[in-house]
Amino acid sequence: MDTDAVLQLLQETAEAVINPRFRKLADDQIEEKHPGDLVTVADRESEQLITRALLADDPDALVAGEEAVDGDPSILDRFTAADHAWTVDPVDGTKNFVAGSPDHAVMVAELRGGQTVRAWIWQPQHELAYVAERGAGAECNGVAISRSLPGGAAEQLRGATSYRRLWGADIGRLEPLGPTHLCCGVDYGRLASGLVDYLVYRRVMPWDHAPGALIAGESGGRVGRADGSDYDPRSRGHGVLAAGSPAAFDTALAEMGESFRRL
Question: Are strands 178-179 and 159-161 parallel, antiparallel or unpaired?
Fold first, then answer.
């Protein structure tokens, strides 16, 4: 499936099953998978439609959708070994979606040999489409994205985190971390567009970070782990640091120190 066709798939899926439920969800269309972890009928229907289309294009591919993995965690083991795989986050920012916030997205990434080669983020309410191909750059609504940070000086960096324990924390010379939009599909778009300089996450699920990591990397940034290694969508554990430039990544990693390694 070519790049434009995948983006069209995400947009059509959102138009069919997500947008009609926005601010119109009935109580029986919302469930709690785990304490504090919501899922809606839009999440499930969106994932089914996207998965079906991706497998129709390549029946041998492995699709790791957030809701499918919740029902069958062994999918992640097969995902790690798959030569051709996809990640699907059918409604990233479900809590925002349930609360009526426009800050939600649909995200897909394609992996070949364990490496993310293409990525898509569609924000249906903001009508923003972020697309990246490895080695070919990243775009927002068809316009190339490229950003760099001068020098990566700590005092210049604006950071945000989804980890509540770090909100407002005094982290070296960095300004206190504020909250993210609690939606990777919005956060990574803001990072690539220069609205924030670095992001800190505790969870490392591939559907959350594989799309944004490629978009960040192709727009001049870097995404990695607490030991300084590059982000690998097949990796487990805790802690992801995404930054708008390699210099910003190095500065934020050095300043955060143990605060990041203890995530």
Answer: parallel
> What is the distance, to the nearest Å, from the Cα of residue 132 to the centroid of all Cα atoms in its chain?
13
Separation CA 211–CA 175 (nearest Å): 27
Cα–Cα distance for residue pair 181/190, rounded to 1 Å: 10
Site of tokens 């504020």: 178
Residue 254: closest CA among 181, 198, 180:
198
Backbone angles phi, psi at 110, to 5 degrees: -110, 135
pTM: 0.94
Other C-beta atoms lying within 10 Å of the C-beta of residue 167:
14
Pairing type for strands 37-40 and 62-65 reads: unpaired
In DSSP terms, which residues pair with 240 in a beta bridge? 201
What are the tens digits of pLDDT across the range 216-258? 999 999 999 988 999 999 998 889 999 999 999 999 999 887 7
Distances (CA, A) of 143 to 39, 132, 137, 158: 33, 11, 10, 24
Give per-residue pLDDT as tens, 160-176. 998 888 888 777 777 77
